[in-house]
Amino acid sequence: MTRVAIAGFGAIGRELTRRLARGVPGVALTAIGARDRARVDEELRALGLAAVVEPIDALEPYADLVVECAPAELLPAIAEPFLRAGKEVIVLSAGALLEQPHLVELAAEHGGTISVPTGALVGLDAVAACAEGEIASVRLTTRKSVAGLIGAPGLEQSGIRIEDGLAEPVRVFAGTARDAARDFPANLNVAAALALAGIGADRTAVEIWADPGVTRNVHTIEVVSDVAELRMTIENVPSENPRTGRITALSVVSLLRKRAAHLRVGS
């Protein structure tokens, strides 16, 4: 039985908790990292769960792996204790890995593991397979509603105003995956995940559009390589937090379910 901790109890952490409460073979939810202990305790009791609630940097003694579901700047505090103990960290704030390369070094030093689930994207296994050959180019085009982009540092720095409403789509960013992850840390973890699967953060091109005509988070990946040309689009239904899709939590459930499965499909 793998003991699992969830660090963060926002939209993704809460949904993941509910899903694990229904039961996943070989997995036991044993700890939650959150500030409001009383509120989380109440929700856990309602779900019939006996997990402890602790600060996000104090979860390691209670679990074999931790799922990071918190703001990107908290990743080191969550991950470092688990990696030093040679344990696993499932990272949803993939963009933070580009800014915190020491975490990968820490994992290598102590025998720990960092896993990045597919999350809101499609075809990362195919992109990784192409990377075993030669990839010429990777491009990600993301379209989100205004609500899904408001507050991003990249908008504030550029002076682009979208909160007053748009009559037509506006491109709010064009650059590399590294810059996208930095300027849109709560919105574009998909860009970092794609870069890590493919040809790196500085060679992965990204465009972000604020689009008043979409109600879902739309991501289109285009890959040109010597083994395949890929064009894939996914339209994610937003969670209660418009910056993230409902599929993200389910991607983690799928990853955890594979740990004890006797049949595993996809790499």
CATH class of the largest domain: Alpha Beta
Specify Rg, calculated over alpha carbons. 18 Å
Number of separate helices: 10
Strand content: 25-35%
**Roughly how much helix do the residues carry, as a percent range?**
25-40%
Please state the structural category. Answer: alpha/beta
Spell out the CATH superfamily of the largest domain.
NAD(P)-binding Rossmann-like Domain
Order of helices and strands: EHEHEEHEHHEHEHEHHEEEH
What is the arithmetic mean of pLDDT? 93
Shape: globular
Query: Sheet bearing the most strands, described?
Result: 6 strands, parallel
Per the CATH scheme, the topology name of the largest domain is Rossmann fold
Number of strands: 11
Task: Provide the domain count.
Answer: 2
Summarize the structure.
The protein has 2 domains: 2-119 and 247-259, 3-Layer(aba) Sandwich (Rossmann fold), CATH 3.40.50; 124-236, 2-Layer Sandwich (Dihydrodipicolinate Reductase, domain 2). The protein is α/β, with parallel strands linked by helices and 267 residues long. The protein is built from 10 helices and 11 strands.
Helix-strand blueprint:
Elements: E1 2-7, H1 11-21, E2 27-33, H2 37-47, E3 52-54, E4 65-68, H3 75-84, E5 88-91, H4 94-99, H5 102-110, E6 113-115, H6 124-131, E7 135-144, H7 153-158, E8 170-176, H8 177-183, H9 189-197, E9 204-210, E10 217-225, E11 229-236, H10 247-259
Parallel strand pairs: 1-2, 1-4, 2-3, 4-5, 5-6, 7-9
Antiparallel strand pairs: 7-10, 8-9, 10-11
Helix pairs in contact: 1-10, 3-5, 8-9
